[in-house]
Amino acid sequence: MSSKASSSRGGESIVADCGRNTSTCGYCKSPTSSSISHGLWTERLTVHDYQGLLDRGWRRSGCYLYKPEMAKTCCPSYTIRLRASDFVPSKEQQRVRRRLERFLDGELDLKPRERAEDQDVEVSEPVRKLLGSGKREQNNEVEPVMKDLSELIDNAVERCIHSGEFPSNIQIPKSSVKKVLSAKRKKLAEGSEELLYTSNIAFPIVAAIKQTQTSQKGEGSNSAETVSEKLLSEMNKVGEFPGLVIKVCKGHINFFSATQVTSSERDQGESLPSATTTTKSSSNSLQVRKKKLEIHLKRSSFDPEEYELYKRYQLRVHNDEPESISKTSYKRFLVDTPLIEVLPSSDGDDDDENVPPCGFGSYHQQYRVDGRLIAVGVIDILPKCLSSKYLFWDPDLASLSLGNYSALQEIDWVKQNQAHCSALEYYYLGYYIHSCNKMRYKAAYRPSELLCPLRYQWVPFEVAKPLLDKKPYSVLSDFTKASETLEMNNSDEDTDSDSSRNGIDIANILISLNGARLRYKDLLRIINMAVRKQLEPMFISYRKVVGAELSERMVYELQ
């Protein structure tokens, strides 16, 4: 490699081959070591080489690179991306934006809930006024409450889809919350005088599931009662609307007053914990209060504030054990990076590559509201894409769907920075696992495409989906015989037939030996046959997983 080429790429990549790795699977929860991947270790990697690795199905965790052995692993993981300029947000994604905007405009207010482990809960001002005053049936106060409760249910539906509780391809109408009038309450069972609102959203959800999935485990698994219980569970995790008690009855989601236990308590003016300091004048001011959202992009580095947020997120969202979280493991996972940063040219040199104003490399994107850190997106900015690696967020703000919101922001970032770097046009969402319901939400970012695991062609998701519906592993580019024939003649194939030396050309693999750089064909002059027999299987395996171009460009470090 010439010095000029090396300089333009920001140095050289040096990798050590870790070979095959087997482990238990976190997706299918298999008790055996059914997850199979190939690993590389590197402390120096150019952004161009990592872009090339991404386009061959690799990902990184800190300085460790890994690629699933697609035909052998239990849960084949397909790289998924979309062209930012073609992205069309769905109604659900548009609603995520609107909800956060309402929060920033002060229409949704998050306050800490006392007597509940100091959790933040969301209580809109209309609900505060409604519950604090004891007035339930004035239309000018009830209507906003019903809207907020509808959004509460819709968020629970969305989380059930993301978690795999509901299928990702069902079409569900917006939830409708109705007010239960006094006359109707009197006809209900004893104790129902505190029933304020009700929703029958579970019934259309059941109908939608039955339309999209003809084979079910049993009627009970999709009953309205079961669906309502799942939604109730999701709503309880968020802990919203502490002034209301939510119960399920015969498939309906019912909202009861949590404050009016007896008439004597009402007469004494007992208030909700979340509203003890809210006066009429202060609630009016909260209605018009504006919050400031700031998004800061910073180079990947350890930040104590970020680490504290990460710990809270892992403990409460992923239920990690406290002893499993440490600064060392956090740094290894989300801070350490092998990517060699590339800065834009300061003198506007025409020979310099197109680089966005921030440069290329690994970053943490901080989301702050009025200075408070609420989320951190860990991303890599590369010559062709923004690659999303991880996001952790404040568990108290789960109802804001910050994962979806950050994805929309990152897509927008790619669109905006194409003006500075024309080649930077894609958003990579990581891996897509069709056999794992929790991962299917990624396909909702349309129009997306998946990487064929054999020929490394990009295939539209709509084309790939029918193939993946049949079996977890599929050669996606088989959808057209023409492309199959073309690629068979021009690309590597990760098949067992390539295991022989005759099938893989390893002569030009670039190797580091005692600090020197040489090709394997040059190394043959100085090694004996015994060493050659030991090295060749390693180089064949390496050449297969990284491809011809990268094996001749990256430096293979002999251990």
From TrEMBL:
<feature type="compositionally biased region" description="Low complexity">
    <location>
        <begin position="271"/>
        <end position="285"/>
    </location>
</feature>
<dbReference type="Pfam" id="PF04376">
    <property type="entry name" value="ATE_N"/>
</dbReference>
<keyword id="KW-0808">Transferase</keyword>
<keyword id="KW-0012">Acyltransferase</keyword>
<keyword id="KW-0833">Ubl conjugation pathway</keyword>
<dbReference type="InterPro" id="IPR007472">
    <property type="entry name" value="N-end_Aminoacyl_Trfase_C"/>
</dbReference>
<dbReference type="GO" id="GO:0004057">
    <property type="term" value="F:arginyl-tRNA--protein transferase activity"/>
</dbReference>
<dbReference type="InterPro" id="IPR017137">
    <property type="entry name" value="Arg-tRNA-P_Trfase_1_euk"/>
</dbReference>
<dbReference type="GO" id="GO:0010498">
    <property type="term" value="P:proteasomal protein catabolic process"/>
</dbReference>
<comment type="similarity">
    <text>Belongs to the R-transferase family.</text>
</comment>
<dbReference type="Pfam" id="PF04377">
    <property type="entry name" value="ATE_C"/>
</dbReference>
<protein>
    <recommendedName>
        <fullName>Arginyl-tRNA--protein transferase</fullName>
        <ecNumber>2.3.2.8</ecNumber>
    </recommendedName>
</protein>
<feature type="region of interest" description="Disordered">
    <location>
        <begin position="262"/>
        <end position="285"/>
    </location>
</feature>
<comment type="function">
    <text>Involved in the post-translational conjugation of arginine to the N-terminal aspartate or glutamate of a protein. This arginylation is required for degradation of the protein via the ubiquitin pathway.</text>
</comment>
<dbReference type="InterPro" id="IPR016181">
    <property type="entry name" value="Acyl_CoA_acyltransferase"/>
</dbReference>
<feature type="domain" description="N-end aminoacyl transferase N-terminal">
    <location>
        <begin position="23"/>
        <end position="95"/>
    </location>
</feature>
<dbReference type="InterPro" id="IPR007471">
    <property type="entry name" value="N-end_Aminoacyl_Trfase_N"/>
</dbReference>
<dbReference type="GO" id="GO:0005737">
    <property type="term" value="C:cytoplasm"/>
</dbReference>
<dbReference type="InterPro" id="IPR030700">
    <property type="entry name" value="N-end_Aminoacyl_Trfase"/>
</dbReference>
<feature type="domain" description="N-end rule aminoacyl transferase C-terminal">
    <location>
        <begin position="305"/>
        <end position="452"/>
    </location>
</feature>
